[in-house]
């Protein structure tokens, strides 16, 4: 029996969220028994040891949801037909790449890999999915020129995008619920935009990821009971970047090419600003410090929750701008509502700042 297309996306979201809700306490218990905890430190804001293996439940929930939807025939194109081989390779490229990025992060959670080793492994995986899975950026928007095919630059641009976004999500994972909430909001926006761009298969991945990320907030929002760790952050960052490539950037429209960068603008700009600031200070961009946006807001006197909620509002706002750029019906209304919410959040920030 073939279900209405939107029901597959609803199922992917609900199954992923339910599995994460059910499995996270189990992962937490295993982590406590095995001693796999994140200890408090100079740049940490938590005050007690925390299990940092929550990414296991996010990955398991997302993967099982996608497998179940695939099993019942949910991976179809916009016309309801089975995916063409090239499109199917792209879906498998994102899912297999997400698995490998998750394993890299899990290995770091368990064995504390060096930054160079992590980056090298991530670059190899990104190259693999570009070559085998067809996850490639072939166009860029150049100011005053427009959409331009980049040819041989496709590989380095794709690798930088996939690796960069995985690390950008990992870098904002500094407060309870921050990375999960930002990723969940971005995934919902990508779900909507991918459906509008007639990319229902890519939208299924976004739906499952959104369900997993938002379900994890039940245990990760302040005060957190568990952290997602590098495994969860790398998996969500790579998957968001991958969906952006196969769901949006494949079109040659100017708006489609820039949409992933708008949707993920908050982690992108945060990472870029931190790297520039560290280099200007003569420090390695890989040495962790307290230069991120959330650290600066905390230093300005904001509470933990207000800081996270403000960055949520900022993420929702840029996501609403993406809806406008995509020419989605009522997108302007959503953007006005998100602007009002961001205005209110900004007023609360100004009121509570020292």
What does this structure look like?
- Helix 2 packs antiparallel against helix 7, helix 4 crosses helix 5 and helix 12 (304-325) runs antiparallel to helix 13.
- The protein has a two-stranded antiparallel ribbon with strand order 1-2. Strands 3-4 form a two-stranded antiparallel ribbon.
- The longest helix has 30 residues, at 5-34.
- Strand 3 (139-142) and strand 4 form a beta hairpin.
- The protein has helices at 5-34, 55-71, 85-111, 115-131, 154-171, 178-196, 200-220, 229-249, 254-263, 265-280, 293-299, 304-325, 331-352, and strands at residues 37-38, 50-51, 139-142, 146-149.
- The chain has one domain (5-254).
- It is mainly alpha-helical and 354 residues long.
- 70% of the residues lie in helices and 3% in strands.
- It is built from 13 helices and four strands.
- Helices, by number, come to 13
Q: Characterize the main sheet.
A: 2 strands, antiparallel
Structural class: mainly alpha
* Radius of gyration, CA atoms, in whole angstroms: 19 Å
What's the number of extended β-strand segments? 4
* Count of structural domains: 1
Low-confidence stretches: none
Distance between the termini: 60 Å
Using the alpha-carbon principal axes, give the shape: globular
What proportion of the residues is helical, as a percent range? 55-70%
**Neighbour order of strands in the largest sheet:** 1-2
Q: Helix-strand pattern, N to C? A: HEEHHHEEHHHHHHHHH
The overall average pLDDT, rounded, is 91
- The proportion of strand residues reads under 5%
